[in-house]
Specification:
Distance between the termini: 114 Å
Strand order of the largest sheet: 1-2-5-3-4
Shape: elongated
Largest sheet: 5 strands, mixed
Order of helices and strands: HHHHHHEEHHEHEHEEE
CATH superfamily of the domain at 113-259: OmpA-like domain
Structural class: alpha+beta
CATH architecture of the domain at 113-259: 2-Layer Sandwich
């Protein structure tokens, strides 16, 4: 009897579960009709204005109205003014992004590289035809690659007899302009080690410095110049053949598109006389002793005993 009563109650509970699903369904139907009603009551004028604004934004058409953002105001940059002409004082360009040469503002444009390229090709036409000089230009640099055999003896950084007329021709074009110049030395991978040069790196640095010193002696401002040494680590060709090794023994004179600007004369500083406090004299460097401790540390003392 009790078992039959339990089954009766369980079946009654399962028959009432459909009310939960029915209530959820009615709630969704109610929400649907509320949304449909709200859409039907939209103000057509406001809706049309929104659609027109979105369309104008995507089509980039000018707005016709008197809104605050639609009115014309004074231009930040005066019309017809070029960016290069707006910067007249080099000291005012500190915030400008820097160019490949460290510390040089990009606004300081030098002599155009195509102009220098044409002058150099005209002056060095015989050497270009013989393949002893190569001139290449990119966006930032005009590179004049000089065969080391024209300038130096094998394994040496002393100028040969052909170096003087070649560098005289080069300096006659570089001297009238203010472009920065970098002299870059390269070697092959044949190791060198003697009483003068400990490595190919030292040899490439000495050769680049020799060319730089010659250009300074011919009147080019030293502030425009710097030399770089690459040794055997930036080859132009394979070092497996004699021709490739000869091509890797180069001195490259790289002319930047940027120019050096002479700094303005400094103004005399105002000297203010103030009372100087007496300070204890600094300890003599020779009186300081550095003592190594057994545990690996050091101790500094001024005692001489």
């Amino acid at each position: 009897m009790r078992k039959r009563y339990r089954l009766h109650l369980r079946g009654h509970e399962q028959l009432d579960r459909w009310l939960v699903s029915y209530a959820d369904y009615m709630t969704l139907i109610f929400a649907l009709f509320v949304v449909l009603y709200s859409v039907a009551m939209v103000d057509k004028e406001k809706f049309r204005a929104v659609i027109e604004g979105v369309t104008q934004a995507f089509e980039a058409r000018p707005l016709h109205g008197e809104g605050l953002l639609e009115r014309e105001g004074p231009a930040i940059v005066p019309p017809g003014s070029a960016p290069d002409k707006m910067i007249s004082d080099p000291s005012q360009v500190q915030a400008i992004a820097l160019a490949p040469i460290s510390g040089v503002p990009m606004a300081q444009q030098g002599e155009p590289l195509p102009t220098l390229d044409a002058e150099l090709r005209k002056a060095m036409a015989p050497l270009l035809e013989a393949g002893l000089v190569d001139i290449q230009q990119d966006k930032e640099w005009l590179n004049i690659a000089l065969d080391s055999a024209l300038l130096f003896s094998s394994g040496s950084a002393f100028m040969g007899p052909n170096a003087s007329p070649l560098l005289n021709s080069l300096s006659s074009i570089l001297k009238p302009v203010d472009n920065y110049v970098r002299i870059r030395g390269y070697t092959d991978n044949q190791q060198i080690h003697n009483e003068i040069f400990s490595s190919n790196w030292a040899l490439s640095a000495a050769r680049a410095e020799a060319v730089l010193t010659t250009l300074i002696g011919q009147g080019i401002a030293p502030q425009r110049l710097a030399f770089e040494a690459y040794g055997e680590f930036s080859p132009f060709a394979s070092n497996e053949t004699e021709g490739g090794r000869a091509k890797n023994r180069q001195v490259v004179v790289a002319i930047s598109r940027l120019r050096w600007v002479a700094p303005a004369a400094p103004t005399a500083p105002t000297v203010q006389v103030a009372q100087v406090e007496q300070t204890a004299p600094k300890a003599d460097a020779q009186a300081i002793r550095v003592i190594a401790l057994p545990g690996g540390g050091i101790r500094i003392t001024t005692r001489q005993d």
